[in-house]
Write a structure and sequence with these properties.
The chain is mainly α. The chain has helices at 2-22, 25-52, 55-78, 84-112, 118-146, 149-168, 185-197, 200-220, 223-230, 235-256, 265-285, 291-319, 325-353, 356-375, 378-391.
């Protein structure tokens, strides 16, 4: 929690600081790409090493690497160096560290927790993420207003030290390695893909998750423009929408803690696709006077996103061999980051050529259709029936 909060605060602080220092939307877009691109490209391969190496040591090494990069940036700032290029490098290195840390953490949870508690743990993780999402912008704005950016960056270093210390107190068992591992990277990536392919239901849900994410991410980049242009809002209204989404994710994390839902992963994922699609569609058809309703449906969108992303994570954790989880999670992370990059690059084009409200309507409609269609895929339908029978 401390590590997540400190990292997100620093992420927002860098964005706010660059906004104040440079005042360029282009620089902000490039800064985000600088973080996402290494994470996306390296993620295709880092899972191999996560599964080879001790996961606890991998997380500690990744945290310390990110802390070291941030410390170097703080020293440069202290010496008066304020070139944007240095921050691009810092963000890229942070993204590279995250490409190792995130799949290692996700792959470690099933080694520590009973299967019937994974849904509740995913809910707790979503609560931590949503609390950080809500609190980080305000804390970042406060910190850069009362402290020099050099010392703000040091908060991330402190957060990494706390994270590493707490990890030292935890024993994470290593999964049993297969004989085929540690031969070559390409073969191990192929074995990770086979883990998905040999479970047809998971393969379909994996493909569906990618398609839905491709619809979500480009439109999610349009939320600020939707607030400003369609609803004639201001920066205060934009913060209300962000907070509504964050509280929705918080509520979704709390709902996931409900023990009765642990047996309904597939059903929850599909229903939340439909609910999220509805929130996008309704946002697109709202009149310019309907900002309060836009904030309300955004809250429910946050709930839907929290529930389907958490349930999908648990689905992977329960169906995939623990020895291959690092590869599967790293590949999933890389593939789902691609829409984020496309969204950043295409935001202006979508707003100009399609129209912001039309983008919400089209995206929402496609997500609803995908959610309905997946119900009629035979292997997924059988998994839904099994969930219902298992409960009964």
């Amino acid at each position: 929690m401390i590590s997540t909060l400190s990292s997100m605060v620093i992420g927002y602080a860098i964005i706010f600081w660059l906004s104040i220092e440079k005042g360029s939307a282009e620089i902000l877009a490039y800064s985000t790409i600088a973080f996402l691109l290494p994470h996306m490209t390296l993620g295709l391969f880092t899972g191999v090493f996560v599964d080879r190496w001790n996961r606890k040591r991998t997380m500690i090494a990744a945290d310390l690497f990110i802390a070291l990069c941030t410390l170097v940036a703080a020293v440069l700032l202290y010496q008066g160096e304020k070139k944007v290029f240095y921050f691009y490098i810092l963000l890229s290195l942070r993204g590279a560290g995250a490409a190792f840390h995130i799949p290692a953490m996700q792959a470690s949870i099933p080694l520590l927790a009973p299967e019937d508690k994974l849904m509740r743990i995913a809910g707790v993780n979503n609560i931590i993420q949503s609390v950080s999402t809500i609190a980080s912008p305000a804390l970042a704005a406060l910190l850069i207003s009362i402290m020099d950016m050099t010392w703000v960056l040091m908060i991330d270093v402190a957060g990494a030290i706390v994270a590493c210390f707490t990890l030292l107190l935890v024993h994470i068992p290593d999964p049993e390695k297969k004989e085929s591992q540690q031969k070559n990277v390409i073969r191990e990536i192929s074995e990770g893909l086979k883990e998905i392919y040999r479970r047809p239901g998971l393969l379909w849900m994996f493909v569906m998750s990618i398609l839905v994410t491709f619809c979500i991410m480009p439109v999610s980049a349009l939320f600020p423009l939707m607030t400003l242009q369609h609803f004639s809002g201001n920066s205060y209204d934009m913060s209300i929408v962000e907070i509504a989404w964050g509280f929705g994710m918080l509520a979704g994390g709390a709902i996931m803690g409900w023990q009765a839902l642990k047996n309904y992963k597939i059903i929850m994922i599909i229903l939340m696709y439909i609910l999220l699609g509805l929130t996008f569609f309704l946002s697109g058809i709202l009149p310019p006077s309907g900002f309060i309703y836009f904030a309300m449906v955004t809250f429910f969108g946050g709930i839907a996103f929290s529930l389907f992303s958490g349930a999908f994570t648990v689905l992977i954790q329960t169906l995939v061999d623990p020895a291959a989880l690092g590869r599967v999670f790293s590949m999933q992370g890389s593939i789902t980051l691609l829409p984020s990059l496309l969204g950043l690059l295409a935001t202006g084009l979508i707003a100009e050529k399609i129209g912001i409200t039309n983008a919400f309507i089209i995206s929402g409609s496609i997500i609803i259709i995908l959610g309905i269609v997946i119900f009629f895929v035979p292997v997924v339908g059988r998994m839904v029936v099994q969930e219902i029978r298992r409960k009964n």
